Amino acid sequence: MIKRSIKSRVFGKNRPDIAEEFKEKWDKEYLEFLKFVWTFPEKEFTQIEQKIKEFNAESKVIILKNRKDKEKYLANYGRKAKN
After folding, report:
1. FRET pair for 74, CA 20 to 30 Å: which of 28, 37, 62, 82?
2. What are the b/e assignments for 19-45, b being 16+ CB within 10 Å?
3. Using a CB cutoff of 8 Å and minimum separation of 24, what contacts does 21-27 make?
C-alpha cells in the first residue's frame, strides 16, 4: 500500500481503482489508516475470529490469508486465480 502511494505521488498517476480527480493526501487521516492496516492482523483479526465462533459460522466463512491460500482454494473449484 505504501509502495503504491509513493508511486502515485512520484509519477503523478492515480491507481486505476481511484477516481481521476481524487488526490491522495499524506495527512493525519492517511497515517491513521496506515496504522489500522499495519496493525489489523493482530488487533482486528482476533476479534473477527471470535465473532465467527460466537455466531457459529465456521462452516460458512473461508479465510484466505495469502496468495497461496487463494490459489489453492480456487484450484479446488476449477477456476484460475486472478491477481
Report:
1. 37
2. eeeeeeeeeeeeeeeeeeeeeeeeeee
3. none
| The residue to which cell 486472478 is assigned | 82
Quote the cell numbers at residue 12: 503523478
Cβ 24 vs Cβ 9: under 8 Å? yes
d(CA 31, CA 65): 24
Q: Residue range 33-60: average pLDDT? A: 85
Q: Alpha-carbon distance 7 to 1, whole Å?
A: 10
Residues 6+ apart with CB under 8 A from 32: none
**How many Cβ atoms are within 10 Å of 70's Cβ, its own excluded?**
14
Instruction: Note the pLDDT of residue 28.
Output: 93
